[in-house]
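Q: Hi! Curious about what ABC transporter ATP-binding protein looks like structurally. Here's the sequence.
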Amino acid sequence: MQPIITISGLSKTYASGLAALKDVNLEIRRGEIFALLGPNGAGKSTLINIVCGIVTPSTGTITVDGHDIATDYRAARSLIGLVPQELTTDAFEKVFNTVSFSRGLFGLGKNPAHIEQVLKDLSLWEKRDSRIMQLSGGMKRRVLIAKALSHEPKILFLDEPTAGVDVELRQDMWRMVRRLRDSGVTVILTTHYIEEAEEMADRVGVIRKGELVLVEEKAELMRKLGKKQLTLHLPEPLAAIPEDLADHHLELAKNGCELIYTYDTRGGRTGITGLLTDLAAAGIRFQDIDTSQSSLEDIFVDLVRDAA
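A: Let's find out. The predicted structure is below.
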């Protein structure tokens, strides 16, 4: 299937000399949820702002559903909804009016039924006649999402959409994102809540210092880079790991009451059988075993550290 967004050789260097993006190449698939992760200042917002036509690139090309953002800007931009980080709304305007106005900016006729549905999906319908200044921070964030969806875009950019939003509102937002994806909308999000990317995303991209260091299917990323740990709980503290067990690279924890064995999920063999055999030969008994696997956050931290 043809990608809905194609980014080729994209770079951005500001007048100050700051290289915000360096030769970024990326394809976003139609109908996927793509999570872009990276530390503060990595270039996430710059990348989004360039695709949305807010920032001019230094080099490179971008097409949105076949439309070049430079030569066919209006067609490309009409396909995109953007929810920025900043809470920029007209404080004195009413919710229904400001969302309807956003639809008109794209040359679309009035559609009260669509605006009503968007507001209901975001639990904003009861606030439709409230002025923006009367809303909480979380509700203002929802209004930004409603404005981005007012013109029925095929692509939705969410730049830190749940920053400052309470847990209940956050869960509502993600239910809405799933519904959008199921209806065919492509969703690109940046987030500091990595557990959200782990739960929501189909693919994950990691950006650091303006460079896209990895793009991978989430499940495949966790399979390839994730590690599992086997924790053996000992009935008696162990003062030191016997030399005969050195090949297993074990760690002692909890004052000698736990032995931790880490193995690569990519390996055809885990080595657990050999470990248990060697433990028995060394006279080391255990009373319980726990297993754990790397989370996306663990993998992300390792990737950023390795790229440093």
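A: A fun detail: DSSP finds ten helices and 14 strands in the chain.
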